[in-house]
Specification:
five-stranded mixed beta sheet, 3 helices, 28% helix
């Protein structure tokens, strides 16, 4: 599947110190994929004691990465 980064997502991965390569790893090899809303998919992966969550608008072509963040509260989201 093809993905495109939104300006918002690029700003936030920079602010949060997350690389584009790590985001692509989460998208390519997620531990879990959740449908939050009709057009929003959340890709999740645990890497080095952090849960990375990538929010994607699946109605766009290519799918649009809306935002990305990492959290240490892994159990809250799994």
């Amino acid at each position: 599947m093809q993905f495109e980064f939104s300006l918002h997502s690029l700003e936030h991965i920079k602010l949060r110190g997350i690389s584009k390569e790590l985001v692509e790893l989460v998208l390519d090899y997620p531990d879990e994929i959740a449908n939050e809303f009709e057009n929003q998919i959340i890709y999740q992966k645990v890497i080095e004691n952090y849960l990375y969550r990538v929010f994607v608008n699946s109605n766009k072509n290519p799918s649009l990465i809306k935002t990305v963040y990492k959290t240490s509260k892994i159990n809250k989201y799994q």
